[in-house]
Structure formats: structure tokens, C-alpha cells
Request: fold
Amino acid sequence: GDKEEKEVLKIGDLVIDQERFSFTVKGRPVSLTKLEFRILSFLMENPGKVFSRDKLLSGAWDGEAFVIDRTVDVHVRSIRHKLGKYRDAIETVRGAGYRMAEADRGY
Reply:
């Protein structure tokens, strides 16, 4: 059912396999930390939807750690860095948070 569909998320050339804990960009593996992986998964599960930092925290952290707001920015910056020319796939929405661009954005 629903679980299987969630396991592999694909947006353009970005593919996350949640079961195998792998992330590839155009077929090339990119290594992410556990937290980066969770944040990216969360965004890719909901393309086009804006998440406040709080929402990303509660979605990605699973109650782990005591996290301050700014930390999210640090992780997102790190993910963007690893995305290289695909960095714009994660959009910053001023005053609101972050969202994953939808696939047809031509990136």
C-alpha cells in the first residue's frame, strides 16, 4: 500500500530511496547525514509545499535532540551544497520556510 510508494521519492534527477538510505543526483550517489537525509525526504515527500523551520524540525528530528531554529538553515545549506547545480530545487520562502520545487521547473 502506501508505505511502498513512500520509499522511493523522485523529483527530476533527484532520487531518494528511504529503505536503502540512498540519495542520488542524476544517478550519482550523494552522501547525506542522517538528519540531512530526513530533511530532504520530508521536503521531497511534499513538493511545492512550504514548511516552516518548526515543521521541518518536528518532521525530521523525530523528537531527537534540542534544536534551535538556525540549525535548520545550516542543514539546508549543507544539502544545497551537495546538490550542486540542483541547489535551487530547495527554495527559500521568505518569512515562511523552505519548500521543494516541483519537478517541472526545468532544473
Remarks:
- The chain is about 40% helix and 20% strand.
- Residues 2 and 8 are 11 Å apart (CA to CA).
- The mean pLDDT is 85.
- Helices lie at 2-7, 34-45, 53-61, 69-83.
